[in-house]
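User: quick one - fold this with heme C bound?
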Amino acid sequence: MPRILLLASLLLVSSAAVADEDAIKLKAGPGHDQVLQNCAVCHSLDYVRMNATFMTPQVWDAEVQKMIKAYGAPIEAGDAKIITDYLATQYGVPAPAPAPAKAGN
Ligand code: HEC
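Assistant: Sure. Structure tokens for the protein plus heme C:
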């Protein structure tokens, strides 16, 4: 294979599968530092990005509370609020419209 093609395909592969923790960057904004300090202790920060597509502010709030109450994350109440606001703003979706009816067809 010509060298340039090989290089191009390697680049494609590596940008599609970002597994390196150093490569996980969260968006800048108020609360970013608190998230980095408090949320990367137990698991990858990728959890934030993976869940972002369906997290409303209420669900992020519940998620942060779960990390604290169920999993024992040592996060102070003030920081929890800052973190929740950051997550809802940067990685959230608006509060949901009523769910479409699934039953029946
Ligand atoms: C004390 C350890 C700990 C800390 C600190 C922590 N988590 Fe978690 N988190 C867990 C565990 C345990 C799970 C569930 C098991 C797994 O999937 O790894 C989890 C799972 C998650 C998930 C996946 C969905 C779910 O509920 O399983 C998200 C999103 C998440 N954490 C976000 C956060 C955020 C945001 C913070 C910072 C506020 C945070 N975590 C801090 C322990 C922690």
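One thing worth noting: Residues 13-18 have pLDDT under 50 and may be disordered.
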